[in-house]
Structures are given as C-alpha cells and as structure tokens.
C-alpha cells in the first residue's frame, strides 16, 4: 500500500513537471511576431474615405494604394510620397485577401516554431523521468527508515510547489 501511494505521488509530480515545461515551451513562442509577406504588385482599394492624421492626407473612397507593411491590427501604405501611412483593416475592400495573407503568416510561424514546442515537451518528459527515478530512490530509502509521515508530507509539499509553479507559469510570473 505504501509503495502504491509513493507511485501515485510520483506520477502526480511527473505530470505536473511535464505540464509546466510543456506550457513554458508553448508560451516561449508567444512573444514572437509573424511577418505578413506582401505579394509583389499587390494594391489595396480603400472602402471609404480615409483621413491620415500624421500626414494630413485624405484618401478618397475607391483609391488604390500600395501596402508597405501588413500587421495583424493595422496596415501601412504608400501614398503621394508618404511611405508609412497607418490605416486599419476595415479601410480596404480586399478583406478576404488580407485575411488569407494573415492566416498564411500565422501558419508559417507555427510551422517554424514547432521544433521549439517539441523540444520543450521532450525536455519536460526527460526531466519528469529523472524526477521519478530520483523520487523512487529517495522514497525507497525513507520507507526503509519507517518514516511514513515524513514521506507523505514531503510528497505533499512537492505537489503543492509543483502546483504553485504551474499556476505561476500560466500567468507568466
């Protein structure tokens, strides 16, 4: 019965450590932006009159402009000698084309970062296995000394610490 209890604690600890490291691996790529690649010769058509505060330019509805940079929440265009006029997505008719470009960029980012996630999962699994091995040896030695309370309290403390680390890692602390 004591060995089953130790095994249950070790499995809970393994799952906690694995979850923390897998979560951190996935979270480590969140900060990386992704670049939308603009097809050569792409032009956008304004869907309404656009007023650009930074350069006091008014672009009338139906005007074609050249995008210089596309981000998830804004588009920079070139118009009348200005290269960095900020516009929103809703200012343009080509919504479906813009969404396709954004989806492609996002998928490309996921594909490029997949090895980072896999590496984090593998490291989490390896650390978890090492934890089980070390925990089994230490638990076996404590069981030999007949210190059951110390063993249970130790595993409970470790489980609480792993739980706390899991919570803090999900908040980015």
Give the strand order of the largest sheet, numbering strands 1, 2, ... along the chain. Answer: 1-4-5-6
Shape field: rod-shaped
Total number of helices: 3
Sketch the topology as an H/E string, one letter per element: HEEEEEEHH
Q: Measured on Cα atoms, how large is the radius of gyration? A: 27 Å
Uncertain stretches: none
Largest sheet: 4 strands, antiparallel
Taking all residues together, what is the mean pLDDT? 82
Could you give the count of β-strands? 6
User: Pairing-aware structural class of the strands and helices?
Assistant: alpha+beta
Summarize the structure.
57% of the residues lie in helices and 15% in strands.
Molecular structure report:
- The protein has 173 residues and is α+β, with helices and mostly antiparallel strands.
- It is built from 3 helices and 6 strands.
- The strands form 2 sheets. The chain has a 4-stranded antiparallel beta sheet with strand order 1-4-5-6, with no helix packed on it. A two-stranded antiparallel ribbon has the order 2-3.
- Helix 1 runs antiparallel to helix 2 and helix 1 packs parallel to helix 3.
- The protein starts with a helix and ends with a helix.
Keywords:
173 residues, 57% helix, single chain, 4-stranded antiparallel sheet, two-stranded antiparallel ribbon, 6 strands, alpha+beta, rod-shaped, 3 helices
SSE layout and pairing:
Layout: H1 2-27, E1 44-45, E2 50-52, E3 57-59, E4 64-70, E5 75-79, E6 82-87, H2 95-144, H3 148-170
Antiparallel strand pairs: 1-4, 2-3, 4-5, 5-6
Helix pairs in contact: 1-2, 1-3
